[in-house]
Every structure is written in C-alpha cells, then in structure tokens.
Amino acid sequence: MSLVSTKRLTLFDWVNYSLLALISLACVFPFIYVFSVSFTDPKAYIPLKFYLFPDQWSLAAYKYILSTNSFLNALKSTVFITLIGTALSIVTSFTFAYALTRKTMPGRSIMLGAVVFTLVFNAGILPSYILIKSLGLLNSHWSLIWPSLTNAWSLIVIKSFLESLPSELEDSARIDGCSDIGVFLRIVIPLSMPAIAAFVLFFAVTYWNTYFNALIYLSDSKKWTLQVLVKTLVIDSDSTGVGQAGAGGDDRIVPQETIRMASIMLAMAPILAVYPFLQKHFAKGVMLGSIKG
Fold it and tell me: pTM value?
C-alpha cells in the first residue's frame, strides 16, 4: 500500500508549468545580462553582444565606479537617507498608529478621518514642491525624509495589527503601574517585532529607491541619490564624466556599457542582500496585520 498518492499531471498542468517557466526565464535573463556585462573584461567586451556568461571576468568597472567621487557621494547620501529615514518612519508610524488605537484619545476620529482622506486625495506635485521650498528644505536630504515619514496605508495596517494584540496584557501592565508610554515600550513594541521587521523592509526599500523626489528637490549633483546617478549613467553617462578615464589609473577606457551595468548591480545589491534575512519576518508581519481576533 502506498503511503503517498501521486497526482498525475494533466496536459493543462504541463502547459501551465511550461508557460510559467518561460515567463520566469524572461524575467531572470535581464538580470543575468546585467550581471555578466558588469563583470566582463573591458578588453573582451563587444558592443551589442548578448552575454550569458562573461568571456573574461574582470572587476574593472566596479573598481572604477567605486573610485569616483560621484558614486561615493551618491552612496553616502542614499545610506544616510535610508538609515535615518527608516528609523524615523518606524518611530513615527508605530507611535501614531498606537495613538489611533486609543479610543479615549481626544480627536482620534478626526485624525483617523484625515488619514483615510489621504488615501483618496493627494495634494499633487506643485503644492508639495511649494511646501518643501517654504520650509527651506530644497537641495537638502531632509526633503526626501520628512515628507515620507509615514503614509495612510502603513498606518492603517499597523493600527490593525496593534488592535489584534491581546488587550489583557496591556490591562495587566496598567494594573502593575505602567503608563501608556510604559505599556507601549514594554508590551506593544516587543510583541510587534514581526511587524516592525516587515515595515523596516518596506521603508528601507522606499528610501533606497528614492528617485523622483530626489530629482525635483536636489539640484546639487553632489547630493544625488544612487537612483538619480544610475539614471544619469544609463541614459546619459557622458554628462557625469564617468568612464572618461581608465580604471585603476591605467590608460584603458572602461566601456560605458560595463559601467552602466556595474552601477545597476551596486544599486540593487544591498536590498538583495538584506531581503533574505527579513523575508520570514516580512511574510509573518503582513499576515499578522491582516488578521484580527
């Protein structure tokens, strides 16, 4: 007697799996091409040739990019915006959402209505630009942080998650003499670590990929983020002067295409490296925020 019954695959299953495999390959091939070209030796690089694997491996493009002031400045700016922005966004979102869960808080309904209102209506680009300009934040990294500290969707999901926590724990803490701040720091925050991990990833990816706001608020190229620099390299690399000198101080000119691909890989690498460690918390946090009771 067989312990496991094997399901026979039908013709539909084979066609379905085949199509999914082709779609997956179509999605993966661009990444393979970018990776291969970025590691291709400048001497062996041939324009308009498809590289599945480099003919000759080389770190010339990476060495050159990491030696340029433009890339290092963009990297510093992006790291600063991501670290500071993510930390402030987590603090703002969870404290605001916790306040919205307190039914006895004065003005709770008005604030909750204002949050929901922003889901439907948006001020637009021009009022946002005028506001940033009036605050004196133009050409400052803070112009990319303050307007993005939180959003309505995050607040609603976090509020739903916090309301799903056992209220008996908070009641017990208050009986022991804890204030609202004490309950928040000692009870709510430790129980919210899966949700915090999920939103750390959400906010970090958002700040790391900041492009449009950086494009309109930052006029100084020394303060550009990685995404703006990569866009400039990919679309008009000549304007940055990248690739006009040899990598490592030699006379060899690094091909523009390898520089473009290497810059794309460097821009993606940090998020790709961090995501596997937060994946289980990410999935758990999202599920916990969607279940109440």
Answer: 0.79
